[in-house]
Specification:
Rossmann fold; 392 residues; 7-stranded mixed β-sheet; 16 helices
Length: 392
């Protein structure tokens, strides 16, 4: 096994000395079966996240000393020190012949636990991931803040990598990424890509972001907006002519905008509303829905594009955000779509079940009526989705 944390790879054995855990075999099963995650916890066998379900492998339950030994064996020195101090750490490993994995090691009930996520060696295309084609247009905009949101495991990093890949194939740009850790490794095609990993190439997100504008970027990709300082730099860069990508742990566009505003105290609300209205390009929110036609999941996506109507509402301190209606009004002209429109498209094409469509719908009762054909005669915004167009 080769461990990658941004520094030169370090070759280590696949199993920690004295451990009965065959990590290499578990990772092989993970990749072979198409699982997204591998969980290692004391008292349980290695467990896969397979199409949203947790599936234990036919292996013995793990003992505390096994996972403690594995942590000491796998963690690079800097991350081991961080783990000892903070009780959690992130890094990545690359296993020749098997794949690349993002790893989070943490402590629970006084014992060591791992969550390992499989990462493709190369970023897939937007269309290969079944993401809305409008993302191709959004990726090629010259400036603005593009936010990809969703719960943990919803595919935010994968979607970001696909958009960076799209730029790389079609535009000559200097792209700077700041990640913790680096997940998808991009190779220069048309663009010049510099990937910086927190802990290896820079001490922190904030340190990297303080200097990123001096590195002549056209495109900046920030792994995640975690604090006010990161958000400030993202808004400043997007407002001064750069294209900025990042993620937030929010579930839809309305919550995303409210979350951004909540970073700031009340006396700055007017200022930040104007800054956000000018800097925002789009918000893409993702929910992964189990397929019914074959194993796997598909992305149901809400897409908000920052039109003049959206900008006006963000600026207005007295207005309550009404993003769903703005998305509805912009679906035909700007490629916007709601979660429920996306779910209607997948259901109409026989890709997801009626039960899952209702479960993931924002307005299940209204969605059920629309499936029955009960909607306003003047409401044509659902026609393309009900017919199963290419929009997702």
């Amino acid at each position: 096994m080769t461990m990658v944390s941004g520094a030169a790879p370090v070759t280590v054995k696949p199993t920690a000395p004295g451990s009965g855990l065959d990590l290499k075999a578990a990772l092989q099963r993970m990749v072979r079966e198409g699982a997204s995650d591998l969980h290692l916890k004391v008292g349980r066998p290695p467990t896969l996240r397979l199409h949203s379900d947790l599936v234990p492998l036919d292996m013995p339950p793990m003992r505390p000393e096994e996972l403690r030994s594995l942590a000491e064996h796998l963690l690079p020195p800097a991350q081991l020190r961080e783990f000892v101090e903070m009780r959690e750490s992130d890094f990545a490993i690359n296993v020749p012949g098997i794949g690349r994995f993002r790893v989070n090691v943490y402590q629970q009930k006084g014992t060591v636990a791992f969550a390992m996520r499989a990462i493709a060696h190369a970023a897939a295309s937007i269309r290969d991931l079944n993401l809305p084609p409008v993302l191709e247009q959004l990726a090629l905009k010259p400036r603005g803040l593009v936010l990809v949101t969703g719960v943990t495991g919803s595919g935010k990093s994968t979607a970001l990598a696909a958009m960076v890949h799209h730029i790389n194939e079609r535009r000559s740009a200097n792209i700077i990424t700041i990640e913790d850790p680096i997940e998808f490794v991009h190779r220069d095609v048309q663009s010049h890509i510099n990937q910086r990993e927190v802990g290896t190439d820079t001490a922190s997100f904030s340190q990297a972001l303080r200097r990123v504008l001096r590195q002549d970027p056209d495109v900046i990709m920030i792994g995640e907006i975690r604090d006010l300082e990161t958000l400030d730099v993202a808004l400043k860069a997007a407002g001064t002519g750069h294209l900025v990508f990042s993620t937030l742990h929010t579930t839809d566009a309305t919550l995303t905008i409210n979350r951004i505003l909540s970073f700031y105290p009340p006396h700055q609300q007017n200022e930040v509303r104007f800054a956000l209205a000018n800097a925002l390009s789009s918000v893409i929110s993702i929910r992964l829905v189990p397929r019914s036609d074959r194993p796997g999941r598909v992305p149901a996506c809400e897409v908000l594009v920052n039109t003049e109507a959206v900008r006006d509402q963000i600026r207005d301190l007295s207005a309550t955000l009404n993003i769903p209606d703005l998305i509805k009004e912009g679906s035909m002209a700007y490629g916007m779509q709601s979660f429920d429109q996306s779910l209607m498209n997948w259901y109409s094409r026989g890709v997801i079940s009626y039960e899952n469509a209702l479960f993931y719908a924002t307005n299940p009762a209204e969605f059920a009526l629309r499936i029955q054909g009960v909607d306003g005669t003047s409401d044509t915004n659902w026609d393309a989705f009900r017919q199963g167009s290419s929009a997702t």
